[in-house]
Amino acid sequence: LGKGIGIERYFAVINKADNPGPVADKLAAMGIPVLGTIPFDKCLVEADLAGKPPIDFNCPAVDSIKAIKIKLEELFGEKKQ
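RE: above sequence
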């Protein structure tokens, strides 16, 4: 779909994954690189219900998101604000 509108590079993030293997295999077969996997994490729901950012909680999903951010910065350079 992206190629049809001129997008040349694209990646996937597997979200809420308890068993990412089949999804990762399908993406690999399609030639789509996976930047990372974010596990299903009840901690994110708790943060949302508390109205607080997930980074304030000790969530495994937050560590995965940070790792994906680092990969994006490596690929595209760190964006300065």
